[in-house]
Specification:
Elements lengths: L1 E7 L7 H11 L3 E5 L10 H6 L2 E6 L7 E6 L4 E5 L12 E6 L2 E7 L9 H23 L3 E6 L23 H13 L2 E2 H5 L26 E5 L7 E6 L15 E5 L1
Parallel strand pairs: 1-2, 7-8
Antiparallel strand pairs: 1-12, 2-4, 3-4, 5-6, 6-7, 8-10, 9-10, 11-12
Helix pairs in contact: 3-4
InterPro entries: AP_endonuc_1, Endo/exonu/phosph_ase_sf, Endo/exonuclease/phosphatase, ExoIII-like
Cofactor: Mg(2+); Mn(2+)
Family: Belongs to the DNA repair enzymes AP/ExoA family.
Length: about 260
């Protein structure tokens, strides 16, 4: 069984104790991280190596940043940055091959405040992802495209959908772009395993510690290529990490492939 997880850590150095404790407790085979918020040279490769993982990363000081970890192996880098805009300076995409599996790790722009320039950038980035995703599907290799998509695809993916109507993560254009990826053939693995269930990966921090359970959203997704569909055996979210000390506002989502 190959287990793949995605986790928006919301600052890899600030949340390092949470990340290392989670890696040691779960021992996923492949881990994609987003929102590293660190420059390349300050990425905690040594601590992650001590936990048993090889890593590649694409950092950016204070913002964004993505990484792919492999347990007991070094991921083979295939690409950093999404094609289609040579002027895009944000560190939001990295891709590796691990044991014959192509893994794309992405941190899609949030897009708030919307409408506005940030939302326009989000949609342009999404268009590039859709186009590149089509290339990956045409290439035919077994592929997982996962990360923080900053999209809540349907009303079942929010505890209280109406709270998010004015937010870029729930705008119709964001949801349409995500739906376009599924129409191309990508499979939402968590939703495939849990077709009717409210599954959430993000909650607002609440004042005085803890988190606001009514703010739950699912916007961290693992999309798999059609050839992996028969191999999908399980999926879920490590919700308990959200209650740990100094946690990220996201919890890790994961899938199991035969």
């Amino acid at each position: 069984m190959l287990r793949v997880a995605t986790f928006n850590v919301n600052g890899v150095n600030g949340r390092l104790p949470v990340l290392i404790a989670w890696l040691k407790a779960t021992r996923y085979d492949v881990v994609c991280l987003q929102e590293l918020k660190t420059s390349d040279e300050k990425f905690p490769a040594e601590a992650i190596g001590d936990a048993g993982y090889g890593a590649i990363w694409h950092g950016q000081k204070s913002y964004n940043g993505v990484a792919i970890l492999a347990r007991g192996a070094d991921p083979i880098e295939r690409r950093r940055g999404l094609p289609g805009d040579p002027d895009d300076s944000h560190s939001r995409y990295i891709e590796a091959e691990i044991s014959g599996l192509v893994v794309g790790c992405l941190y899609l722009p949030n897009g708030n405040p919307a409408p506005g320039p940030k939302f326009d950038y989000k949609l342009r980035w999404f268009d590039r992802l859709i186009s590149y995703g089509q290339d990956l599907l045409k290439a035919g290799a077994p592929t997982v495209l996962c990360g923080d998509y900053n999209v809540v695809p349907t009303p079942i993916d929010a505890v209280v959908p109406r709270r998010w109507i004015g937010d870029a993560v729930y705008f119709p254009e964001s949801r349409q772009a995500y739906a376009a990826m599924l129409e191309d053939g990508w499979i939402d693995a968590v939703r495939r395993i849990h077709p009717e269930k409210g599954v959430y990966t993000y909650w607002n921090h609440s004042y005085g510690g803890g988190y606001d359970k009514s703010s739950g959203l699912r916007m961290d997704h693992l999309l798999i290529s059609p050839s992996l569909s028969p191999k999908l055996r399980g999926a879920g979210v490590d919700v308990e990490t959200r209650g740990w000390e100094k946690p990220s506002d996201h919890a890790p989502a994961w899938i199991e492939l035969e």
